[in-house]
Design brief:
With 347 residues, this protein is an alpha+beta fold. The protein has 3 domains: 29 residues; 104 residues, no CATH class; 152 residues, NADH Oxidase, CATH 3.40.109.10. Helix content is 49%, strand content 8%. Strands 1-2-4-3 form a 4-stranded antiparallel sheet, sandwiched between helices. Helix 5 packs antiparallel against helix 6. The N and C termini lie far apart (52 Å). 24% of the residues are buried.
């Protein structure tokens, strides 16, 4: 029976190759293939389009848009730190930025502390911008509008571009390399709770990672309820055989409504992956272990996880991470890495 199945698979492979070769020759035929013969990208199409719709809907309705605020403030930051700095810059988006800043300041901030630090950052950068940019009609109108906006909170430090001080790095390379080499994917954990304070500390380190225009188009869904962990940890395919001993599982979720155009759809994966690696190493410094879990794009599992986490269509699960105290009796894979000469090329 096994040999017969293998024979059928080999025949199907032989038949499939010319079929795929034909449809992969042009963009049109590829689009036709994935429209008619495969649903593999349907959910991604829908999520990207839904995210773009929500982003543009907020623009059209002139409503609050934190992603737009963060992007444009960061664009101003880059203009402020240029060498040499241009006498006039930011004219294409300064009106848009001041308008969204004004709308967000007018919100009931007592019930939304999540935005306060971001508005202080925006206020400080805008103040610096108006103090150095040369005057013209657009700048003058925006400055007048900005100066009338009352923001009733502040901070001791100015959240504006600064000179990076020259100093010894806090961690030497040999120490850091040892940390990365000692980190291994752990699948056997002790039945010991993970303090939420430690998880929050790792997330604080994670969000210091680079992010395109500082949008941070992702969030970490931390699941530490025992019943929910058992439910969620069985949904990714890579947990078979050890899902029942995971103490905490974290879902890394991307927000496609952070972008106005399809061209940026991959940034949720890039930015979230940078942050996730920083979080993994942070857990290592605290004595906690992790296992990064692949999330294949399979419609049935996507539907299942969307229901379990109450996700919207604009959201995409990027990966999962198991977190806990490593069981010293449990083994880890050696996982030999590629040699430097193979994985590195200059120029």
């Amino acid at each position: 029976m096994f040999q017969f199945k293998q024979f059928i698979k080999s025949i199907l492979l032989i038949l499939r190759l010319p079929f795929l070769r034909i449809f992969s020759t042009t963009f049109f035929l590829s689009a036709f293939f994935y429209s008619i013969f495969s649903r593999a990208f349907w959910r991604e199409f829908n999520s990207v389009l839904r995210g773009r719709y929500l982003y543009l809907k907020r623009l059209h309705e002139k409503s609050e848009n934190v992603f737009l605020l963060r992007r444009n403030v960061h664009r101003l930051e880059k203009g402020l730190l240029m060498r040499p700095r241009r006498p006039v810059f930011g004219l294409k988006y300064i009106e848009e930025l001041v308008n969204v800043y004004e709308r967000l300041v007018s919100k009931d901030l007592e019930n939304d502390e999540s935005i306060v630090d971001q508005l202080i950052w925006a206020r400080d950068v805008l103040t610096k911008y108006f103090s150095v940019v040369e005057n013209n009609t657009i700048v003058s109108n925006c400055r007048n509008q900005f100066e009338k906006i009352d923001i009733a909170f502040g901070s001791k430090e100015k959240k504006i571009p600064f000179n990076q001080p020259s100093k010894e790095p806090p961690v030497q390379y040999d120490q850091f390399f040892k940390l990365t080499k000692n980190r291994r994917s752990v699948r056997w954990f002790l039945p010991k709770p993970v303090p939420r304070e430690m998880i929050d500390r790792a997330i604080l380190a994670a969000v210091q990672s680079p992010s395109s225009c500082n949008r941070l188009p992702y969030e970490f869904r931390v699941i530490d309820d025992e019943k929910m962990v058992k439910e969620v940890s069985t949904i990714p395919m890579g947990t078979k055989g050890f899902s029942d001993n995971i103490p905490v599982i974290i879902a890394v979720v991307g927000h496609l409504d952070a972008f106005f155009n399809e061209r940026d759809r991959h940034l949720i994966y890039i930015d979230a992956s940078l942050a996730s690696m920083a979080m993994v190493l942070s857990f290592e410094t605290m004595g906690l272990s992790t296992c990064c879990l692949n999330w294949p794009d399979i419609p049935k599992r996507e539907k299942k996880i969307s229901k379990a986490l109450n996700l919207e269509r604009k959201n995409r699960v990027i990966m999962f991470m198991a977190v806990g105290w490593a069981d010293p009796e449990g083994k880890v894979a050696y996982s030999e890495k590629k040699p430097l000469g193979v994985i590195r090329k200059y120029n």
